[in-house]
């Protein structure tokens, strides 16, 4: 009898070990080098949250020499940290079978930046003699700035992602990622005003998560587990001890430091990017069909995309979020 119990115990041990080993492997591709804006995902990786949900997650960074976007449709990534909804509209327009399943930034960090005090408010920027905008920006938010806020093409000059011209011209205005260029300018001794486009009506989500429609159809449980774990990671990163996540980010991108990450996260908090708006009641990752439709109307009215070019029913699947998941974690960590 003892031998049978011993044998059964050994078998159970093997089964449990096998179950632990057999976590579902998931690859998340990010949109740039590791940084604070990816922190919730690194938090879920290092604190065991992904493992708790039966996932073995690899975070594969993007970067200047890496384009993770085609890797998703090719099956080499399971989830992709994308940019804003315009990219998702473009996927649908081109018949690429990927779908947005969450939005971790309720506001797009895209901004315009000016020297401190040079312009009284956002409206005054439309009178600047020069506005530096990248090529991508010229075919997206710049068209909206012209249509909705009175900017003029005569102001437009190309932005080459170098601050030298801005630093040498007190009257110049340039595009900025709200949690990047303002910090870089400050490091060079320039005080700046940051005007978040989201606060002026640019209503797209940002840092959306996309996956293949095939994965949604064949394994919705995996999608749900990944998003639940990621949401928990973001709450713990924002309101708990983020030191281990910092360590993982720095290991993946040695150019980062604790000081740089602290500055970046302070800027996220100042601008109100993540846990704001619908996220405060629906949970981080919130994504609604109504807001997607509204931004689509903005993009059409501004001439960014053609009316009828995008089947909105294929852009996003909102069933995995908006459930208030993780709100209890925030309440525990913040006392609110």
Task: Explain what you see.
This protein has 16 helices and ten strands. With 336 residues, it is α/β, with parallel strands linked by helices. It is 43% helix and 15% strand. Mean pLDDT is 93; it is low at 1-20. The protein has helices at 2-21, 39-46, 49-52, 69-73, 85-93, 135-138, 141-149, 164-167, 181-187, 213-218, 220-239, 243-252, 258-271, 279-282, 289-301, 327-334; strands at 24-29, 55-60, 79-81, 98-105, 110-115, 131-133, 156-158, 173-177, 192-196, 206-212. The termini are far apart.
- End-to-end span in angstroms? 56 Å
Mean pLDDT: 93
Total strands: 10
Q: How much beta, percentage-wise?
A: 15-25%
Order of helices and strands: HEHHEHEHEEEHHEHEHEEHHHHHHH
Shape: globular
Q: Radius of gyration, Cα only, in angstroms?
A: 22 Å
> How much helical structure, as a percent, in the residues?
40-55%
Q: Structural class given helices, strands, pairing?
A: alpha/beta
Strand order of the largest sheet: 2-1-3-10-4
Contiguous runs where pLDDT drops below 50 for at least 5 residues: 1-20
With helices defined by DSSP (H or I, 4 residues minimum), what is the helix count? 16
The description of the largest β-sheet is:
5 strands, mixed
